[in-house]
Amino acid sequence: MSNLKDLRGQSRRRFLKWTAAAGAALALDRSQVLNVISDSAGSAMADEASCSTTMRSVHLVAGDGGFAWFQLLWPHNEVATSTNNNFAFHAQGQQLKATDTDKTLYHVPQSPWTKRDKLKRISAFMAGTNQTHTPTPGSAASVGAGQSMLAVCSSVQRANPTLLPVIGITPLAFGTAPGAPQLATVGNADGMVQLFNSAASRSILEVESDAQLFEAYYKTFLGLNTAATRPTVQRPLDIGKKSANFLGKNLAALLEPTQDDLMRYGVVDSTPNKLRELAKTLITTSKAFKLGLTSCVALPVMRDDPHGAFADMGTLLATVNHLGLILDEFMNDLAATPDPTCSGKTLADNVVITVHGDTPKTPLERGGWPDGTPGNSNWLYVMGNGYTKTGWFGGVKADGSILGFDPTTGNDVPNQSANTTSSSAGAAVAFTVAKGDRRRVEEFYTGPWISGIINQNPI
User: Fold this and answer.
1) How confident is the model at residue 457 (pLDDT cuts 50, 70, 90)?
2) Could you tell me whether strands 147-148 and 142-144 are parallel, antiparallel, or unpaired per DSSP bridges?
3) With the CA atoms of 111, 115, 116 and 117 taken in that order, what torsion angle do they form, in degrees rounded to the nearest 10?
4) Burial of 253 (0-12, 13-18, 19+ CB in 10 A)
5) Can you tell me the distance from the alpha carbon of 40 to that of 249, in angstroms, rounded to the nearest whole number?
6) Any residues with CB less than 8 A from the CB of 156 and at least 6 apart, and which?
7) How far apart, in whole angstroms, are the C-alpha atoms of residue 424 and residue 90?
8) Would you say residue 306 has pLDDT above 50?
9) d(C-alpha 226, C-alpha 151), whole Å
10) Which of 29, 39, 188, 216 is deepest in the core (most CB within 10 A)?
11) 113-117, 216-220, 402-406, 427-431: lowest mean pLDDT where?
């Protein structure tokens, strides 16, 4: 069909988005969708859709003091090795030094992803300033010049069309960056499924109104329907009257967490809502990634301000155990799912995960777990899938002083403000999302090059 093969610009992107959504509704393998695209629109269009040039990303935003929980998963080095029982650390004597990181990093029993390859190790960057107390922190998630890390990542990801480019659960400070898509927002994990449904329906309706492309879209939809294996869809569908409703119903069934999913993630009736919502959102996120419906999900997490956490060690340990389990199960789901955009890879091979927050609280005092941090510092955790060098870059020392880092060499810089390297850390995340494409990063980042904290290729 020449009118499909000649598509350019916005029409081309809309066609790929629509086809991905229709294929998801019909429960087709990505390869079947690509075959239909190739037959209908030519091999060049199919090649464009077959292997993503960017990573997906998940951004955990821990406002209102909840960021403190994550330093128990990935402690500062001198805190992990100290015998000071007053430090805000729960696993003295249980820490284990990672043997496959670029810089020093200690794991505790609850640290996620430790049984996976070294590409899944954490990079921890001193970045940003303490923002006690806000539900929408952003100082540690910047790429400079007023651009947020979340918006920059989403702008980079637009190279690969999806139905909803970026989804945010409120409250969230998404920020701005040139070319960033519009943020689709919902209020909780359950809202994600409904958001996909309504957006899918709107997508079909918008295509219907396009007189030039209607016939081509209709014929492609029939091609997808023929390729489907389910008997219930082995008949011609009236796209004008039924396809939007059909698409919504199927996406709901495919995205909703099942009882088995919830059990694997440790969610039971007594699970605190902060952990339940995190688990449900990540379950739906993995399913949405599998169907090629989005590239980026950002969500608020653990907003409980745990000042008294160390006064109840039983509850503290249960919380940290469950938090680590949820993150492990999310990676297990991703690793068990072939990447629909790259043959031979899994979703776990092509995802970036970041964690930032308002205040991590001081790691040096467990009593009341004060909000203030040494040097008013903050930091950013990144699972960069090999594109970021791993371990701690800078950090809080046991004597209360702080270390920064030089983004060009990766070397520690004593007493450097964490805010000095906010944009460098954010650029490293953008570099990972861009799969090592420096040119894409330099569209947003103008600071010293980050060769000391990134790898040009995963190793």
Assistant:
1) confident
2) antiparallel
3) 110
4) exposed
5) 26
6) 54, 430, 433, 434, 440
7) 31
8) yes
9) 39
10) 216
11) 216-220
Strands (E), 39-181: 56-62, 96-97, 106-107, 122-129, 142-144, 147-148, 164-169
**What is the pLDDT, as a whole number, of residue 48?**
47
Q: Is the per-residue pLDDT at 35 higher than 70?
A: no
Structure token pair of residue 74: 């990935």
Take residue 110 and report the two structure tokens written for it: 């609850």
Identity of the residue numbered 160: N
- pLDDT for res 194: 84
Query: Quick one: tokens of 442?
Result: 């330099």
Contact assessment for residue 137 and residue 356, using Cβ atoms and an 8 Å cutoff:
yes
- What tokens appear for 270 in the block? 């007594």
Annotate 376-413 with b (16+ C-beta within 10 A) or e (fewer): bbbbbbbbbbbbbbbbbbbbbbbeeebbbbbbeebebb
At residue 244 the predicted structure's pLDDT band, cuts being 50, 70 and 90, is very low
CB distance 62 to 358 below 8 Å: yes
